[in-house]
Specification:
mainly beta, Pnp Oxidase, Chain A, seven-stranded antiparallel β-sheet, two-stranded antiparallel ribbon, extended
Length: about 170
Amino acid sequence: MSDDDDDSILGDIHLLFEEPPETTEPPALPVAFYFKVVIDNQLSEDNSFQEISGIQTEIVTETVDEGGSPFTYSLPTKVKNSNLVLKRGIADGNSKLAQWCMSVLEGGGFIRPIKPANLQVWLLNEKGTAVRKWSFLNAYPVKWEVEAFSSTKNDLAIERMELCYTVLRRDM
Protein backbone atom coordinates (compact mmCIF):
# COMPACT_ATOMS: atom_id res chain seq x y z
CA MET A 1 0.00 0.00 0.00
CA SER A 2 1.30 3.40 -0.87
CA ASP A 3 1.11 6.55 1.22
CA ASP A 4 -1.47 7.94 -1.19
CA ASP A 5 -3.75 4.94 -0.52
CA ASP A 6 -3.36 5.46 3.27
CA ASP A 7 -4.34 9.15 2.95
CA SER A 8 -7.36 8.25 0.84
CA ILE A 9 -8.57 5.62 3.33
CA LEU A 10 -7.98 7.91 6.31
CA GLY A 11 -9.87 10.70 4.50
CA ASP A 12 -12.83 8.36 3.92
CA ILE A 13 -12.81 7.27 7.58
CA HIS A 14 -12.65 10.89 8.69
CA LEU A 15 -15.79 11.63 6.60
CA LEU A 16 -17.66 8.84 8.39
CA PHE A 17 -17.11 10.46 11.80
CA GLU A 18 -17.80 14.09 10.88
CA GLU A 19 -20.77 15.82 12.44
CA PRO A 20 -23.72 15.84 10.07
CA PRO A 21 -24.52 19.24 8.56
CA GLU A 22 -27.05 21.32 10.48
CA THR A 23 -30.57 20.93 9.22
CA THR A 24 -33.18 23.59 9.45
CA GLU A 25 -36.55 22.81 10.96
CA PRO A 26 -39.37 22.81 8.44
CA PRO A 27 -41.73 25.72 8.98
CA ALA A 28 -44.56 24.97 11.37
CA LEU A 29 -47.88 24.36 9.68
CA PRO A 30 -50.49 26.95 10.63
CA VAL A 31 -53.28 26.04 13.01
CA ALA A 32 -56.87 26.51 11.85
CA PHE A 33 -58.39 27.74 15.11
CA TYR A 34 -56.76 31.16 15.43
CA PHE A 35 -58.09 33.67 12.91
CA LYS A 36 -59.66 37.08 12.58
CA VAL A 37 -62.10 38.66 10.15
CA VAL A 38 -61.80 42.27 9.03
CA ILE A 39 -64.74 43.90 7.27
CA ASP A 40 -64.10 47.08 5.27
CA ASN A 41 -60.78 47.53 7.08
CA GLN A 42 -62.45 47.68 10.50
CA LEU A 43 -61.57 45.20 13.23
CA SER A 44 -64.05 45.12 16.10
CA GLU A 45 -65.58 42.77 18.65
CA ASP A 46 -68.40 42.32 16.13
CA ASN A 47 -66.02 40.40 13.85
CA SER A 48 -65.37 37.37 16.11
CA PHE A 49 -66.47 34.05 14.68
CA GLN A 50 -66.59 30.46 15.84
CA GLU A 51 -66.08 29.03 12.37
CA ILE A 52 -65.34 30.17 8.84
CA SER A 53 -65.80 27.97 5.78
CA GLY A 54 -66.23 28.30 2.05
CA ILE A 55 -62.78 29.59 1.12
CA GLN A 56 -62.88 27.80 -2.20
CA THR A 57 -62.37 28.52 -5.89
CA GLU A 58 -62.78 26.08 -8.74
CA ILE A 59 -62.74 26.07 -12.51
CA VAL A 60 -66.00 24.98 -14.07
CA THR A 61 -65.45 22.78 -17.10
CA GLU A 62 -67.55 21.71 -20.05
CA THR A 63 -67.19 18.24 -21.54
CA VAL A 64 -66.84 18.20 -25.32
CA ASP A 65 -66.93 15.02 -27.40
CA GLU A 66 -64.58 14.93 -30.37
CA GLY A 67 -66.46 13.91 -33.51
CA GLY A 68 -65.40 10.57 -35.03
CA SER A 69 -63.17 9.83 -32.05
CA PRO A 70 -63.60 8.07 -28.72
CA PHE A 71 -62.01 11.02 -26.87
CA THR A 72 -63.72 13.63 -24.75
CA TYR A 73 -62.18 16.86 -23.56
CA SER A 74 -62.85 18.95 -20.46
CA LEU A 75 -62.59 22.61 -21.41
CA PRO A 76 -62.48 25.40 -18.81
CA THR A 77 -65.45 27.78 -18.99
CA LYS A 78 -65.27 30.04 -15.89
CA VAL A 79 -63.98 30.40 -12.35
CA LYS A 80 -66.55 29.78 -9.63
CA ASN A 81 -66.29 30.82 -5.98
CA SER A 82 -68.24 29.13 -3.21
CA ASN A 83 -70.04 31.29 -0.66
CA LEU A 84 -68.15 32.38 2.44
CA VAL A 85 -69.87 31.10 5.60
CA LEU A 86 -69.38 32.83 8.96
CA LYS A 87 -70.68 31.22 12.19
CA ARG A 88 -70.79 32.82 15.61
CA GLY A 89 -72.87 33.19 18.74
CA ILE A 90 -75.94 35.31 18.10
CA ALA A 91 -74.95 38.97 18.35
CA ASP A 92 -76.97 41.68 20.04
CA GLY A 93 -78.99 44.27 18.15
CA ASN A 94 -76.06 46.71 18.01
CA SER A 95 -74.04 44.43 15.72
CA LYS A 96 -73.17 46.42 12.60
CA LEU A 97 -72.58 43.17 10.70
CA ALA A 98 -76.03 41.83 11.63
CA GLN A 99 -77.59 45.19 10.75
CA TRP A 100 -75.86 45.12 7.34
CA CYS A 101 -77.08 41.56 6.70
CA MET A 102 -80.63 42.42 7.70
CA SER A 103 -80.65 45.60 5.59
CA VAL A 104 -79.81 43.49 2.54
CA LEU A 105 -81.92 40.43 3.30
CA GLU A 106 -84.94 42.25 4.72
CA GLY A 107 -84.61 45.20 2.35
CA GLY A 108 -88.18 45.01 1.10
CA GLY A 109 -87.65 43.61 -2.37
CA PHE A 110 -84.42 45.42 -3.21
CA ILE A 111 -85.88 48.89 -2.82
CA ARG A 112 -82.49 50.02 -1.53
CA PRO A 113 -79.28 49.16 -3.37
CA ILE A 114 -77.09 46.46 -1.87
CA LYS A 115 -73.93 47.91 -0.35
CA PRO A 116 -71.15 45.34 -0.84
CA ALA A 117 -68.20 45.17 1.54
CA ASN A 118 -64.64 43.88 1.30
CA LEU A 119 -63.63 41.23 3.81
CA GLN A 120 -60.30 39.77 4.82
CA VAL A 121 -59.78 36.51 6.68
CA TRP A 122 -56.44 36.35 8.48
CA LEU A 123 -55.04 33.03 9.68
CA LEU A 124 -52.76 33.63 12.67
CA ASN A 125 -49.98 31.61 14.29
CA GLU A 126 -49.70 30.91 18.02
CA LYS A 127 -48.12 34.36 18.57
CA GLY A 128 -50.95 36.19 16.78
CA THR A 129 -48.85 36.95 13.71
CA ALA A 130 -50.59 36.65 10.34
CA VAL A 131 -49.43 33.67 8.27
CA ARG A 132 -52.12 33.74 5.55
CA LYS A 133 -54.63 36.28 4.31
CA TRP A 134 -57.57 35.90 1.96
CA SER A 135 -59.46 38.88 0.56
CA PHE A 136 -63.09 38.70 -0.56
CA LEU A 137 -64.05 41.64 -2.75
CA ASN A 138 -67.57 43.00 -3.25
CA ALA A 139 -69.15 40.64 -0.72
CA TYR A 140 -72.77 40.82 0.35
CA PRO A 141 -75.06 38.55 2.38
CA VAL A 142 -77.20 36.00 0.56
CA LYS A 143 -78.37 33.97 3.57
CA TRP A 144 -78.74 34.42 7.32
CA GLU A 145 -79.78 31.57 9.57
CA VAL A 146 -80.14 30.78 13.24
CA GLU A 147 -79.15 27.19 13.93
CA ALA A 148 -81.64 24.89 15.63
CA PHE A 149 -82.46 25.30 19.32
CA SER A 150 -82.47 22.09 21.34
CA SER A 151 -83.66 21.59 24.89
CA THR A 152 -81.41 18.53 25.23
CA LYS A 153 -78.15 20.42 24.61
CA ASN A 154 -76.31 23.12 26.47
CA ASP A 155 -74.94 24.91 23.37
CA LEU A 156 -74.72 28.55 22.44
CA ALA A 157 -77.33 29.95 20.07
CA ILE A 158 -75.47 30.23 16.75
CA GLU A 159 -76.12 32.48 13.78
CA ARG A 160 -74.78 31.63 10.36
CA MET A 161 -74.18 34.23 7.66
CA GLU A 162 -73.48 33.30 4.08
CA LEU A 163 -71.87 35.85 1.78
CA CYS A 164 -71.20 35.74 -1.94
CA TYR A 165 -68.38 37.76 -3.46
CA THR A 166 -66.90 38.68 -6.81
CA VAL A 167 -63.18 38.01 -6.29
CA LEU A 168 -61.24 35.73 -3.92
CA ARG A 169 -57.57 36.57 -3.59
CA ARG A 170 -54.93 34.88 -1.45
CA ASP A 171 -52.68 37.77 -0.53
CA MET A 172 -50.02 35.96 1.49
